[in-house]
Each structure stands twice: as C-alpha cells, then as structure tokens.
Amino acid sequence: MSQKLTVNIKLNPSKEQESSLNEMSRLYVDTVNMLVAEMVEVKLILKKTSKDVKVILPSVVKNQAIRDAQSLFYKAKKKKFENVSILKKPICFWNNQSYTFDCDYIYIPIILDGKVKRAAIQAHMIDKDDRNFSLLKHKLGALRITQKSNKWIAQIAITVPTVEKNDGKIMGVDLGLKVPAVAITDCGKPKFFGNGRENKYMRRMFQSTRKELSRNKKVKAVKNLGNKEQRWMRDKDHKISRKIVEFAKVNDVSVIRLEKLTKLRQTARTSRKNTKNLHTWSFYRLSKYIEYKAKLDGIKIEYVNPAYTSQMCPSCGKKNKAKDRVYSCSCGLKKHRDLIGAMNIRWAPVVDGNSPSA
After folding, report:
1. Mind listing the pLDDT tens digit for each residue in 62-74?
2. Model pTM greater than 0.85?
C-alpha cells in the first residue's frame, strides 16, 4: 500500500529566472489547451511527440504537456464531450527525471536567452528536523511550479509506502462545531481537540472585517482576507488532525472511525446563530487530513453511518436528546454529548470509505 502526498517548497528565483518561469507557465497552459482542442475536434487521441509541438519549451516539459492534454481528453470523452476542461491558471510541470535538488537549490531546465539551460533556482528547503524532510527520501513524482500570492512555489509529488496495523484498538472520533473533535479509544480513554469558541470568534472577526471592507468598496482587500481566513482554517485542521493521529499512536490504535457526513448542510438542524459557522467550516477537509496522516502511520480509516450517534445511549441503546452539551439517560449514564457521539461512532455500522463533501 502507498500514500500520495505533495511537499511544498518556496522558491526565490532571480529576475531572469522569474521572467522565464512566467513565460513557460503561460506557454505550458496554452499548449495543453491547444492539444486538447485538436483532439476534441477529431474525437481521437493524437499521438504526438515533443518534435510535433512547435513552442519554445524544453522537450521534457513538452512531453508532460502532451500527457496532461491526453488526460484531459479522456476526462472529456467519459462525459461524451459535454464538458471539456481546460487549464486556466499559469502552471508548468517537469517529470521526476528532469529535476534534482539539494539543500539550497532546485535544478530544472528552463528557457534562458532563447535556449534551454539547466538553471539553479534558490529554494527555501525544509530543515532536517522538519517532519516533511523524510518524505523527500521516498519515491519522487512530477514537479509542479506555480505562483501563489506573488510567491513562487515548487510542489513535488511523493509516494510513501505504508503498512496497515492489524492488531490494535478502534477509536471513534466525533467532529463538531463547539468542540472540533472528540475521540475515545476501546479502553474508554477520551480526548477533546481544538477550541470551538476560538474558531467561532475568528470567523466572526473575519466576517465583520469583510463587511467593513465591502462597504468601503475594497474588493481586492476582501479577496485577500478570504484567502487569509482559509489559510487560518486549514492550519487549524492540520494541527487538530495531527494531534488526533498522535493520540491514536500513543494508545496503539489501528482503526480510526469517522462519521460519513453526507449532505450535512442540507440535513443538519442547527440554531440560526450557528448556521454561518456550519457553512464555513469544512468537516470534509478535516476528515481527509485525519485520513492521510493516519495512513502514513499504518492506521486504517473507516467511515460509519452517522444516524443517531449523538442520541443513542451506548449503554442501554435508548434514544435521548441531549440538553445543551450534557447527555443523560434513565439507565444512569451521564456524559458530554460529543463524547457519546464518539462512543457510538466507534461501534456504528461501517459504510464505504469514500465520504463525499459535507
């Protein structure tokens, strides 16, 4: 088994290198879209080589453009050409045989002065103490260079071999708004993760600032603030998911069970004050972060049916509705509502592992 990941590395190209990357990214996108259009017109895969592509790009980049165009054509063919995808954002790819790197530079062929030259682009490589450093020792895939917020980023695809644990405990994890995540192991050891109050406060702050900027017609500032909010939310999800997996490792957990939150926004009953929070927080993203981090450590992820996980008494099976955050049953069981959910998730019926977006 294996897990595919992406390692992001910040680049600091010279002005000449930056100009070349800009031009190559534009040419790459135009070339892919042109090839797709040609294949869609004749409804056939055109077997071309780098010699057939008359643009000023390194041959390895041309070959990658051909492969990308063929992939987009196959996707369009499956949809009977009703929807043909095209590339819009400037981007450029190199295969794993055309680039190398060391502690300070990434070496790739680019166009300089109208000729293909192997350039050393300064990179802020990760430290040996960084958790991602060990990933670069595994099988390397394609290198993608793109520009985000006026910063150049190199993205290297990594394939990491994994081995699933067969003998261990099962842990249930309940995801929510007021408490981002609650976990409980087979032996009944609970753990609460994240701070729902902080999340709610930050979202209100971003929303208030966005309204103020909109009134002043500062469109660009509104967009930048939205990006900042998403980065903040992703960072929180990364930290919570990492802590959940570390908790699972410490307690010898081999299986983590999560709710399959299908169409949560359409079916969840929530108060008016929490509606905005429900629609801005991505439970799907957090569950996927937990999934890929768990797989790296050989921990299996299973998705379960979420029906009545917060109402069913794990002791006697009776259904009760929690009052605020406290769940109590006539059998004498009294616990935090989300903890009851995690306990029920641990033993709920397992469904398929492909959980769609919440």
Report:
1. 999 999 999 999 9
2. no
